[in-house]
Design brief:
240 residues; mainly alpha
């Protein structure tokens, strides 16, 4: 087979995106959380009659506090999960070392449950078990549902979360930074960002743009509406 033909054969099939790097979920969650959190804070302060200075101060404080909180939470969460997986993988490594026959039989049983014939399962289990690293990877995948060599990075998750939250949180502050002392402009810009962000996330996961856009707009509007009413009520009480 010619080299070009072999290359095409090796690349046959759909090309999948990386779903194990640990950055997509915190990035999406961080951006949407930053947008909803800050637009809600600004709506609440604005509804209570807060000045432009108070709104900007609140927004910046919310951005900094939320971004670092999200980053810390992601780092601890991913680190803890990885540590738990490493502990379970260590148990499996111990079993493969000191109880190899039983582990090989267990692997053959798992292959049988996947529809492999008894003879083939026994042979495959023997061949896999002859290679300790491969045996550990297969057992971890079958029993724990993870690949120990492809665990998400806590640093990547924290960085993605912090950056995305800050990007989302800056959106409702932009009008005030540009000199527009208007809560309506801030809410309108945030609604547009929610539509675009929610729609892009939907397209990333091969769902209709409008479905993600509408969902994010509804959720963001509800949160901002509730805090606006709270601010309105508290502002009214202060005025009396």
């Amino acid at each position: 087979m010619a080299t070009s033909e072999k290359d095409r054969a090796d690349r046959h099939g759909p090309e999948h995106r990386d779903v194990s790097g640990g950055w997509l979920r915190p990035a999406v969650f961080g951006a949407m959380d930053g947008l909803v959190t800050n637009v809600s804070l600004i709506a609440g302060v604005g509804g209570g009659g807060g000045s432009q200075h108070a709104i900007v101060l609140t927004g910046l404080a919310g951005l900094a506090a939320g971004a670092f909180s999200m980053a810390a939470g992601e780092y601890v969460s991913v680190s803890s999960q990885n540590e738990l997986i490493h502990a379970e993988v260590a148990k499996e490594r111990h079993e493969l070392t000191y109880n190899a026959a039983a582990e090989q039989a267990e692997l053959a049983g798992m292959l049988r449950r996947r529809g492999v014939s008894a003879a083939t399962a026994k042979q495959a289990a023997a061949e896999i078990s002859a290679q300790p690293d491969k045996a550990l990877a297969v057992h971890a995948l079958e029993e724990l549902g993870v690949n120990p060599s492809e665990l998400p990075s806590p640093v990547v998750a924290a960085g993605a979360s912090l950056t995305a939250f800050a990007v989302g949180a800056i959106v409702p502050l932009l009008p005030y930074a540009l000199g527009f002392d208007s809560l309506g402009v801030a809410l309108g810009l945030s609604a547009l960002a929610a539509i675009i962000g929610g729609g892009l996330v939907a397209r990333l996961t091969s769902r209709p743009f409008w479905r993600g856009a509408v969902r994010q707009l509804i959720l963001g509007s509800f949160a901002a509406g509730v805090t606006y009413l709270i601010g309105l009520a508290v502002g009214g009480m202060a005025a009396t």
